[in-house]
């Protein structure tokens, strides 16, 4: 079994058992720092944004470069369509996937994604942010992190409410200005 390429890999095994998202980190807490590789750019360290601009973190569920979660694919496309609205509010969007480098590069190329796409095939950042897991991949979650690095909004996946609504997110970002 390979570390990360393809569908049946170590990530799949490590995330197979269904586990719900955790309650930590919660709104009002300092966002856990991370440094992750970025497709087409230098690694991104979350704490580098402190004092600079708010960040919208979008942890997304992608199995391989051609196999997307049916709930996340529309969200990825919605974020692509509305990225300029996020930026207009002085915020950066960081999308985080559990795919490997090769898969991530293919995703960004195929979908022509305009925002920073970070990859974390070990899923450590997903676990640090309390995202659950099921059937081979971590579950999606979204966070808004303010200028001080404090979590101001948190949305965890459920079958009733898959991903954060962009209208709500954009309204919350307005309030951070």
Q: Give the ordered list of helices and strands.
A: HEEEEEHEHEHEEEEH
Low-confidence residue ranges: none
Question: Could you tell me how far the N terminus lies from the C terminus, measured between alpha carbons in angstroms?
Answer: 47 Å
Characterize the biggest β-sheet: 5 strands, mixed
Total DSSP helices: 5
Number of beta-strand segments = 11
What proportion of the residues is helical, as a percent range?
Answer: 25-40%
Overall 3D shape: globular
Report the mean per-residue pLDDT as an integer. 86
* Radius of gyration, whole Å: 15 Å
**What structural category characterises the helix and strand content?**
alpha+beta
Strand content: 15-25%
Tell me the strand order in the biggest sheet. Answer: 7-6-3-10-11
Relevant terms:
single chain, 177 residues, alpha+beta, two-stranded antiparallel ribbon, 5 helices, 27% helix, globular
Walk me through what this model shows:
The strands form 4 sheets. The protein has a 5-stranded mixed β-sheet with strand order 7-6-3-10-11. It contains 5 helices and 11 strands, in the order H-E-E-E-E-E-H-E-H-E-H-E-E-E-E-H. The chain is α+β, with helices and mostly antiparallel strands. A hairpin with a 5-residue loop joins strand 10 and strand 11 (151-156). Helices cover 27% and strands 24% of the residues. It has helices at residues 10-14, 72-88, 101-111, 124-128, 166-174, and strands at residues 35-38, 41-45, 55-59, 62-64, 67-68, 92-97, 117-119, 133-134, 137-138, 141-145, 151-156.
Which SSEs are present, and which pair or pack?
Elements: H1 10-14, E1 35-38, E2 41-45, E3 55-59, E4 62-64, E5 67-68, H2 72-88, E6 92-97, H3 101-111, E7 117-119, H4 124-128, E8 133-134, E9 137-138, E10 141-145, E11 151-156, H5 166-174
Parallel strand pairs: 3-6, 6-7
Antiparallel strand pairs: 1-2, 3-10, 4-5, 8-9, 10-11
């Amino acid at each position: 079994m390979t570390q990360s390429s393809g569908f049946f890999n170590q990530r799949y095994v490590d995330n197979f058992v269904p586990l719900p998202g955790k309650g930590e980190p919660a709104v009002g807490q300092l966002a856990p720092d991370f440094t992750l590789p970025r497709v087409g750019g230098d690694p991104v360290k979350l704490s580098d944004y402190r004092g600079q601009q708010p960040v919208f973190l979008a942890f997304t569920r992608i199995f391989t470069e051609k196999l997307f979660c049916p709930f996340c694919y529309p969200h990825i496309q919605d974020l692509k369509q509305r990225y300029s609205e996020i930026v207009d509010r002085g915020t950066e969007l960081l999308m985080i996937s559990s795919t490997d480098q090769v898969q991530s590069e293919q995703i960004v190329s195929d979908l022509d994604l305009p925002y920073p796409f970070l990859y974390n095939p070990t899923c450590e950042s997903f676990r640090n942010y309390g995202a659950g897991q099921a059937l081979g991949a971590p579950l999606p979650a979204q966070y808004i992190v303010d200028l001080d690095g404090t979590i101001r909004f948190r949305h965890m996946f459920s079958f009733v409410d898959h991903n954060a609504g962009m209208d709500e997110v954009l309204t919350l970002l307005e309030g951070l200005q």
